Amino acid sequence: MSNGIPEDSADVVGVLTERIEARFGMGMAQLKAAVAAAPTANPDATDVVKWHGLLVEAQLVLDRAEDNLLAALQSQPSDVDDPTMRLAHRVNAAVTARDGRAMVVRWLLAPDAPGRKDLAAERLARLAPRTGPAVHTSAPNRPAGTTAPPAGWRSARAAR
């Protein structure tokens, strides 16, 4: 991993938790309580709390998978059987899930990360009041005595 987290770091969750606490100026318990009390007050905090929870969950799954694999390996002779290989694949999948969630948390913590500025603009656009429909929605007025062209009719320009 990059961004100051060594690749061999066993405590990815701890490192990212410290960064979250530093960014928001409070402990995780306080931040979770603040987000629970007012989830729309700070969308960035809400997103970070959500993804931090998913990261913690993924780390727990990884820890269990590693424990199960270690127990299976200790009870085996030198050859690894199929059930033990399946446990190894579960560990790999759990590492991938944990690392993916860690990447999302790191991205959420980086205000200048690619796509973050566009995300902020999108959020602002959603909050801006609308004054009316973007496109005129009523049918155009036709002079009396004219009929609308059939549905399958195309003009010569459109056919080209």
What does the model show?
The protein is mostly helical and 160 residues long. The protein is 62% helix and 0% strand. It is built from six helices and no strands. It has helices spanning 12-24, 28-37, 43-74, 82-109, 116-127, 156-159. It is elongated and about 95 Å long. The model has no long low-confidence stretch (mean pLDDT 82).
| Number of H- or I-type helical stretches | 6
**End-to-end separation:** 54 Å
Stretches where pLDDT is under 50 for at least 5 consecutive residues are: none
Strand segment count: 0
Q: What portion of residues is helical?
A: 55-70%
Strand content: under 5%
Average pLDDT reading? 82
Over the alpha carbons, how many angstroms does the gyration radius reach?
Answer: 27 Å
